[in-house]
Specification:
The complex is a heterodimer of chains A (429) and B (252).
Chain A (H helix, E strand, L loop, with lengths): L4 E5 L9 E8 L2 E9 L6 H5 L7 H5 L7 H16 L5 H31 L5 H7 L1 H22 L8 E2 L2 E2 L5 H13 L1 H12 L11 E6 L10 E4 L4 E2 L4 H9 L15 E2 L2 H8 L5 H10 L11 H26 L14 E9 L2 E10 L2 E8 L1 H19 L5 H14 L4 H4 L9
Parallel strand pairs in A: 6-9
Antiparallel strand pairs in A: 1-2, 2-3, 4-5, 6-7, 7-8, 10-11, 11-12
Chain B lengths: L6 E6 L5 H12 L2 H5 L1 E5 L12 E5 L6 H12 L2 E5 L1 H5 L11 H9 L22 E3 L6 H12 L11 H7 L24 H4 L16 H10 L4 H22 L1
Parallel strand pairs in B: 1-2, 1-3, 3-4, 4-5
Helix pairs in contact in B: 1-6
The chains are: A alpha+beta (429), B alpha/beta (252).
Amino acid sequence: MSQTLQVDVHHITRVEGHGNIVVDVRKGKLVKCDLEIVEAPRFFEAMLLGQPYDQASHLTSRICGICAVTHATTSLRAVEKALGVEPSEQTKRLRKLNLFGEILDSHILHVCMLVAPDLLGVESVISLAKTDILVVERALRMKKVAGDLCGVIGGRHTHPITMTVGGFTHFPSAEALESLCERLEAMRTDLDDTVELIQSCQLPAFERETEFIALHEEGEYCFIDGEITSTEGGLWPLEEYRSITNEHMVDHSTAKHARHQRQSFMVGALARYKLNNDKLHPKAQAAATALGLTPDCVNPYMISVAQVVEIVHCTEGAIDLIQQILDQGIVSEDPAPALRSSGEGVGACEAPRGTLYHHYEIQDGLVSAANCVIPTAQNLANIEADMRTLVPQQLDCTQEEMTMSLEMLVRAYDPCISCSAHMINVKCI
Amino acid sequence: MSSTKPKIAFFDFAGCEGCQLTVLDSLQTHTELLNAVEIVQFREAMSEINEDYQVAFIEGSYTRPSDEVRLQAIRDQAQIVVALGACAHLGGVNAVRNAHRLEEVKSYVYGEKAEVYESSSALPISDFIQVDAFIPGCPIDREEFVRAVKSLLQGNSPDIPDYPVCVECKLRETGCVFLYGKTCLGPITRAGCGAICPSFGVGCEGCRGLIPNPNMASLREVLSENGLDEMSIRAKMGLFLTNQIAASDMEA
């Protein structure tokens, strides 16, 4: 082919939010290769200013309809650290259970409804319903259990109601939890079928070495709190998040990082798997083995496979958590109190798409400074670096083939663009 | 109804896309809707794009002048335009920023790069195009969405309550949250959600917008008697009602 190629995907479909892929190859030379974020900015950090501390999680859950529970949990942790609130063990378990529900819901949506159509050669889940209704019905069935789990804990699937600073305003009944537990156990057949489906699919064989970052905690596959760790080595307290994230965000083509050698990094399911796989549930370990996922994997298309492994882990984890909560007996306890009305705190959680940080300063009960660092914002530089490696390798492809592999690449990261719409600069110059 | 199914499209402006996800959830339990309509555009869920549609559901707020062109194009094509959720209906939480100076908001988030981004006040879409129906809430209520779609398909306007959330608390026998030392916007907020937040121990946030002729002065007094200072009252009412309160203050 002429080695002149233009790809211009206006508003990538089957992702959350508005983004464009723009690639320009002239005479074999890559002139432009950008993932443009065209989502309207929403200014959440500025909107947080002046908010009463107990309203912050209700506002920030509205950053994203898919990862509302993670935003709420991260926001609550930031407030709690700022004001010296120490939540009970029951609160920690219920929050983790709610987060598992959200990870399940988001991953099932992504793998089975947004990515599967690419792997099965159809345009969307609507077309998939015509060619393979069983796959769609299975996805909907699993998604319903995950959504109902969030509903039982948070009061509502999207934008949790019951989560508050120091605890919960409402508690699930033992009957509701028992019924959920039975449904999660019954979901295991669907999980096996999902693993089998993905096993039968061929994912593009693309590899690029990069840095992977995730939260880390001794003894468990970490989703809430913990410390920050990297495949390049090292362990940092959450309060040092800026030194990990900031320099990568600005003008990444020339960014130099004090601690890390690489110019971009990946967060999300694959990063978590690489860094914490020894703490996965045995059944999730088995799924990873069956799917050929290994800790040395550097293929971004395998993010979807890591998500399948996490679907198994979170289902089993949710079953175990419900058992623990039922064994302890559910207590209708008051939220843990705030010890002071001013302070500063950093909260961090693993959202479906990677590490999420909220950092607040609170003065006399009102938020006086706020910073939120979103997983997709951290991944964007890495997605573009992948695109710039991928395009020169595929100059023999037709424009349609190139567009398809780039769209699949971007979609593999499961970008959440509404979340990340406060990016500083994603254009490469 | 004619044999051809009505063509339906979903569009998103500034928002969290939680209402579109709620639509997907509704379709899980109400597959009859999928038999009654043809979805021709739904970017979050499908790649197919077809500009031939009769009913447009719009999620998200107007937040920048270039949105007006897109809104107008949708209005020109669709016979029925529905505002889906609080962002499209009221400006949603996006309007919290309207209470601050826009330049300060932009520079707080983007620093020196503030001017790169086109942005203005966050407003309801009905400020720019005629809207035939609205489905309120943050997020929308699944069952109300299903009922609204069925009404629209029969050529009727959706039946959205204009009485306050308090009525629904009484109907489901939820104890008033004020009695538990909490505060609530239920007396001035449109019902239809089943008073979901109070039923889980949280005061109403006002996400469904004001009822007709709300008694604002009286609620402000009650909130103040229950320990909220002026700043807290403003923050509480401002979460979803910034635009409506600004409009009613202008009239007063």
